[in-house]
Structure formats: C-alpha cells, structure tokens
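re the bet — no i am not wrong, look at it urself. input seq straight from the record:
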Amino acid sequence: MNPPVSNVQASSRSSRRRPFLLLGDSAVTASVRPRQAVKAHLSILLNRKSRSFDKASSVVQLFDRVAPGSAEWVSRTLSSHRRLPFRGRMGLCGFGTGTTVFILESDQGKKALKILRGSLGLNLEEQLQVAREYRRKYRMIKTQYNRDDPLVVPSSYIVMSSPVLGMRAAAVIQPYIPGPRKDLLQGHSDEELLKLFDASPRLRRQFLGFAGQFVSSCRPNSHCLDVVGEENVLLVEEDGHLQIRIIDTGIFDLDRIRVEARERYARFELCLERIRSLLERIPARAHAVSVDGASRMRIAR
C-alpha cells in the first residue's frame, strides 16, 4: 500500500490543480492499459462510483477504437521530455496503482523511472515530503528483507521535472529488470511454486527467508510489506536463474486497512495464509526430494 501522499496536506493552490493533472496522467497511460470491450468502458463511464482517473482513460480508449492510433498520439502529446534531467531516450512502459512508469535508455544502460502520481500538482516542499516518506519505507523494507539476499531492488527517490505533462513530481529510479517476470503469488499456484523450489535450492532459500520475515512482521499494531499489489514482489529470471525481487516497497498498516479497506485486508489475509502454508510444506517436501535423490544414487551404484 502506498499511502504517503495521503499524509501530505496539500496547499489550496495545489489542491485546485491536482484533479486536472491526474486526469492528464490518466490520458497519458491509456495507450498501455489492457484493451477492454466497449461495454466495459461504458460501464465505467456511467458508474458514479468510478474514479475520474479510470473514466478519462476509458474516453481515450473509446476514441482510439474510432480513430486507431489516437491513444498513442494523446500519450505522446501529453508527455514532455524536454526538461528531463537525464540524457537518453525515454518511452512509456506501463503504470501501477500509484505510479506511471517510463523506461530510460542511456549509455549507462536501462533504468525504470516511476513517477509518483499522487505528487503531481503538489508544491515543492510537499513533493519532497512524499519522496522522503517513500524513501523511509524503502529503507525499512530493505533492512528487513536484504539480510541474506538482495531481494529489494535498489531505488533512488528524487523530485524532478517529469515526462507527465512536463510537470514536476516525486519519482523513483530503479534498475530495469528485463526478461520474463511474474508476480510471485498471483502469477503462480502453490504447486507451481513448490516445483520451482524443488528445482532450485537457491530460490527455495530465498523464499524461506522472504516468507519467514513476512510472517513475523504480520502481527497486530504493526506494518508489513504489501504483497497484495500486483507485481510488488516478482519472480524474475536473471543470468539463467530464478530470483525473488521486491520492486515496490509499499507498506500495510494492518490495523488501518482492517477498518478502512476490508476487501484489501481480506486479500492480504489470503496471501498470508498461502505463505504460511508454503512455509509448512517446504521443509517436509525438501526432505522427501533429498531422500528420493539419495535412493536413485544408490540404485545407480
């Protein structure tokens, strides 16, 4: 969960500008959103409870059906690279719950640039406060989860002139992770994960460290890593090996979401139970695999 922006009291001037900037950001990302049926877009537009952010995107995508290519044109028109503090090529890559993601290519390689959407339209001091709060949570998660393996992707937090409408915003810079990638839990069944752990002792060790830390942090009156957000925790292939990588260090305040976000808390509880179950099954399974392997070796002799 990434609520630091909610802890920032926006100035009255900032508050007036922000809705228009967020609508602009929605239009920028419309070209990389999954295509939906016309009926789905109309449902979003006619539903009073739909977010303005989603409605703006639906308008652009509906127009793109009538005039193919218009969504990309809108994205290019509303994206400004002229005032960026970087040299190199930049292109829109995707979006998350609270970020708009660009890929920066330069002589130093590829980087992922994540614009923190909620900081658009805030004044400089407010944006610095957002960046500091994200950095504080990143450092906390890094301390917890990088004890044995570097699971947390290195991240730098800055305030810059962003590609989104050319407006200043808080942002995160991370190494670009190429190749196949899936959400650790949402992208795999328990049986699929167990088979992967059987095939890779290194991956199994990483998961045991990750899961043990996660479960121990999930207690009353505590904060823990948000594993509910899609692709916050990834299973990626690096140098021919599967690795666990934490790319979003959002944090859940358990007592708060239990009251204020019951649906999200229910999803969190399901993730917690899955991780606990996997922790219980791995040691016995690893023993069975090792015994079976020893039996085959004796037979071979």
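see?? The beta strands are 89-95, 99-106, 109-116, 156-161, 168-175, 181-183, 223-225, 233-238, 241-246, 251-253. told u. also Residues 86 and 242 are 31 Å apart (CA to CA). so pay up
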